[in-house]
Amino acid sequence: MAEVGDFYQALPKAELHLHLEGSLTPATLRELEPSLSAEEIESNYRTSGDFSSFLRAYVWALGFLRTPDDYALVLRRLLERLEAENVQYAEITISAGVILRRGQDFEAIFSVLCKECASSPVQVRWILDAVRQFGAAEAMAVAELAAAYRDRGVVAFGIGGDELAGPVEWFGEVFRYARREGLHLTIHAGETAGPRSVWGALELGAERIGHGVTAAEDPELLTALRERNVPLEVCLTSNVATGAVRDLSSHPLPRFLEAGVPVVLNTDDPGLFGVTLTHEYELAASRFGLRESDLQRLAENGFRYAFDFKPAQAEPDARRS
Ligand code: ADE
Ligand code: ZN
User: Ligand 1: which residues within 6 Å by Cβ?
Assistant: First the structure.
């Protein structure tokens, strides 16, 4: 008999909120640094239900991404897993703000990443992410980088990091520049800060909102998201792991769906949180009583709200070649 999980595994899916660095699994960490013991990984690469423990673990793992080949290995393992669970399209976020701050060679890293993509059936596009707490000048450097790589698969500029340590008001000029350059915009907001932060992200021109959990506190905001057709990139397990919600049963996903807000399901940092996209679909189904047809619609949203999804080309007509 087919397992419930088989249905979600086989469902064609798209990932729109997925950090390359956060896709690093304990197994890949040991490939990068064989001297790491299981205990060291267990004690450093974990969250304890609050945002500061998440940031600590994320930054700890970044320390093992030293060379372009390290980044390539992480992507190779990620693409293998995405292919195995029928994720056909992925917009992968790179913490470009971290790469620039560490003085790493972005061109060298990005060119090996593109080589990895060439041998995978997963259609990949890139989002370059700035880090809120690094401030506006460093965010502008990331936006300029994203603009320079637009013809190489970079489709959007985004911002993540500590929402409480870098309010949206700092970044008006940066987002206006990114828009002028024709980049799509997605903003982590409403994860640790309240609904005002999501309103601010809308004002900056966000076409999608990363998380948006606290939008549930403001009915007018839910109406605005619905009317402006701005989807929330919901990441269930992440939201519990970082303390955005107390527990899964208090997650506002049902409220979003009830209010007609567009929703896409994602993993955020699947290696750190120990999840797959299939798992997040199963979780939504089992914990919120959603039917397979509801999940099918959410999966379709992944493609609908993608910034650059191209359906597979039909075979060329043999008579014309
Ligand atoms: N970077 C990676 N994951 C993130 C998250 N959940 N919030 C903010 N920045 C992030
Ligand atoms: Zn994120």
Answer: 19, 22, 160-161, 188, 191, 238, 242, 268-269
Percent of the chain with pLDDT over 70: 96
Condensed to tens digits (0 to 9), the pLDDT of residues 253-287 reads: 999 999 999 999 999 999 999 999 999 999 999 99
Task: Name residue 127's beta-bridge partners.
Answer: 93, 156
Distances (CA, A) of 280 to 262, 267, 273, 299: 17, 7, 11, 11
In contact, 119 and 153? CB cutoff 8 Å: no
Alpha-carbon distance values, 75 to 3, 114, 122 (Å): 29, 10, 12
Separation of 292 CA from ligand 2 center, angstroms? 26
Which residues crowd ion ligand 2, with CB under 5 Å? Answer: 268
Q: How confident is the model at residue 312 (pLDDT cuts 50, 70, 90)?
A: confident
169, 200 contact by CB (below 8 A): yes
β-strands 13-19, 87-94 pairing = parallel
The pTM of this model reads 0.96
* pLDDT mean across residues, the chain: 96
Among 52, 34, 56, 62, CA closest to 43: 56
How many residues are recorded in the chain? Answer: 321
Q: Is 8 exposed, middle or buried (0-12, 13-18, 19+ CB in 10 A)?
A: buried
Domains and CATH numbers, the chain: 8-306 (3.20.20.140)
191 is a catalytic site residue: yes
User: How does DSSP assign 50-79, residue by residue?
Assistant: SHHHHHHHHHHHHTT--SHHHHHHHHHHHH
Alpha helices in 149-235 (DSSP H): 172-180, 195-203, 219-227
Residues 31, 73: contact at Cβ < 8 Å? yes
For the segment 13-43, what is each residue's pLDDT rounded down to a tens digit? 999 999 999 999 999 999 999 999 999 999 9
Atom of ligand 1 lying closest to residue 191 CA? 7
